[in-house]
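Anyone opening a protein record will find just a pair of labelled lines. With that in mind, the following record should read easily:
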Amino acid sequence: MALVKDAKLRPLKIVEYNPLKKNLKRGLIAAGFVVAIVASFYYGYTTGAAQQKEVLSDVEGISEELEKVKQGREELEQQIANLKMGALVDQQASEDVRQEVITLKENLASLKEENSFYRNLMAPTGNKRGLNFGTVEVVDTETPRVYSYKIVLQQLATRHKLLQGTLKFTIIGKQDETPITFKLKEVSSDVTQDIIKLRFKYFQTIQGKLTLPAGFEPEAIELVARSIGKQAVTIEKRFGWLVEES
């Protein structure tokens, strides 16, 4: 049998075993954890709600600013459109005024020409012939090979008396490189006779429309006017085929 030397004996402490107290302690600890969790959740919820409210407020403010910017942009676009429209209106108005000025100038020139023509008719002259060609015009139309013509014959005299006579109107040209002539009656339905009768004191105008045959190339107009009476005269003149634009 082994011997134990100097063995120290420790005093024993007797602890009362109380399962109810132990469970209560555990319950208190668990309850503390639950309270802590609930408190954390509530704090987080309230903080998040406040932040969410702040964010929503910021979003609402940004939306209002965006709407203001949008309205401002629309107003600027409308102003630009108005300016463009105003510029177009001004441009059109300027063009209308320019065209009106051109028309007035043309009318004024025409009136001056007519005034000069009539003044020359009424002015005394020492020309004994009495008969003269005034205006001779051939003007283009919108229809191909159809032209308007106008011939004015006038009496040059110190004392204008009734003048009677005839006018012969001939168009000279080529058809398939062959020289050919047409009387005015052959190309104009406004004339029914080969010879046009003249009867006037100051002037007489012969005008209408003529249609040239296909393939005919006009080169000139030949006019022969004759007066009858004691001082009968004959005047002839050839005009190059010059067509004015309408």
Q: What stands out?
A: DSSP finds two helices and eight strands in the chain.
